[in-house]
Write the structure tokens for this entry.
Amino acid sequence: MSNYSHVLVVSGGMNSATLAHMCVKDGGSPYLITFDYGQKHRKEIEYARLLGENLGVPHQVVNISNIQKLLGGSALTDDGMEVPEGHYEVSNMSITVVPNRNAIFLTIAYAAVVSFESEYGGAAMHTGDHTIYPDCRPEFVNILGNMQKIATEGTGNPNLSIWTPFIDKSKAEFAPIGLAMGLDYGETWSCYKGDRLHCGRCGTCVEQKEVFELIGTLDPTQYQ
Amino acid sequence: MSNYSHVLVVSGGMNSATLAHMCVKDGGSPYLITFDYGQKHRKEIEYARLLGENLGVPHQVVNISNIQKLLGGSALTDDGMEVPEGHYEVSNMSITVVPNRNAIFLTIAYAAVVSFESEYGGAAMHTGDHTIYPDCRPEFVNILGNMQKIATEGTGNPNLSIWTPFIDKSKAEFAPIGLAMGLDYGETWSCYKGDRLHCGRCGTCVEQKEVFELIGTLDPTQYQ
């Protein structure tokens, strides 16, 4: 039997913190992976480490920043491009797309799923991501899960599956789940800019502020 | 329009050399990628570079060796494990499986396909790989191609597709294609051991010898 039921791809943000806490609360024993893909907001990696520490579960940073050689500009990785400000909308946010990011993250996570004979690979995509990130949509998650069963047939856990419990939920729907579990969202990092404090103006900051307003809870995030 | 029609995952071996030459002969303009994933037979990387030079097309080595942190032992990467000798058969060759390798390689290649607005991602899986490598089978290639269409929808070339022309061919079927194009298989590297000369005893060496015998052509490989 495996030591780890789930291999979860986590950033240091609200979504993946909620995912990992939920996994543990439901009796899972997750192994957490965070990718260093050359993102400017490297600060999220420290918060992902803190997430593992707080939960008492293993956490590994995997450096694949060399893939930058193959990528055109994304505002999240390219020093010559400004992270856009404002609401998440296709018009200004499309330059934050890192092509194929979740497919790459999840296929690497599934290599660990096979090695550990775990049952689940997982990540925290949610409905707010669907518009601009094609690899956050339910149709992507479904086919990725099926692809992984075929790609690893006979080599790992035969019941291998995908776990993305927020795929049909909005952030305002799952944030209360985290709060109810006592998760301190002040110990997470979402801002794409990665300065000392959250900028409060990029797409992910704007989204986060709205969520706390919507659910009527004080946002523990310190903004600039 | 893209500068590169194809992004091809190549090792320095016979299969990928034939693939890349065929692509160029058919009028394609490939961009070649080789992965450093911590393989012991690192020598293949030099031969992959030579392949790009001989064809006059760009070649990039992408270092993802950090993923080793997540993998259990494979004889291809683990210093504590011997590369098995003999014929490719499940019984002794299964320890050469690197879990999910082609899924990882291809998803990273497709990030480049999107960036370059190329039409094809491709690799040189063939029928000889099917028995022990689940991610070399036609059902894998089909679903991977479909997954990539969904994962990248709206971000790259809308006609994006997968190119694996050897998926239903044996090495003995496509090697003559390479020979007819004037490809010098003496400038390729297949051996899993990666010493000065091909060992002549590991699965891939045994397979290569058999192929040249089968097609009645002198094997240009220098064996120990």
Summary: The beta strands of chain B are 6-9, 30-36, 59-63, 120-122, 161-163. The longest strand of chain B covers residues 30-36.
